[in-house]
Amino acid sequence: MSMKNSLFIFFDIYGTLAGFYPEREKIQTKILIKYNITLTENQITEGYKDADEFMTYQKKIKPLRLMDKKEIKNFFSIYEMKILEKNGIFIDKEKAWKIWEEISNEKYELKIFSDVYDNLDYLKQKNIFCAGITNMDISGESLIKNLKLKNHLQFIITSYDSKSEKPDPKIFEYCLKKAGAKVTNSYLVGDQIESDIKGAENVGITPILIDRFGYYKDFNKSLKITNLDGLKKIF
Fold first, then answer.
1. pTM of the model
2. What 3-state class would DSSP assign to 130?
3. What's the CATH code of the domain at 191?
4. Domain total for the chain?
5. Cα Rg for the chain, rounded, in angstroms?
């Protein structure tokens, strides 16, 4: 592929190209019932929005990969509490940790969303360079293989590879350098405001918010799509 005058699109992975299967809402519902807590999947989704924002904030202070066991326990106790507090349910840290431990022991996998392969093929046909960028603590080589994306993405850069997490400029710069891209012809597609949208903006990459679950209906500070089909209207 000739890179001269090419466009470059970097895709976040979780929430953008892939999600948990079974869905994390279903796992939460299953475990919470054991503790006599009943929430709808929509309520849990809203709770995860707050919890994920808390996670993004935490990664700016101290990434999870650098935490010890005590810090990890404290973080995920609060993370679970955030999910419940959004819905008016307040529990102590010890109970929150017990719930999270059970959730963590559930078997799940990352599964590609149904609109991914077709749209990545479309972009490839248009000679657009596509790669992945994610805060996951696993090598990009392993991740791209596990998700069967080798024929669709040039590479995936992870926080494990770059030793940095979005929105830190380092991971974006690492990705740009590997791709041989300039910020002036680069885009970032992601589902998180702080880590993806603001992170990209801070280094000069044009962000595109993908709002699959309607979290950010009023957000209009960048390009926005509701699924990957929306890219066909942009490129």
1. 0.90
2. strand
3. 3.40.50.1000
4. 2
5. 18
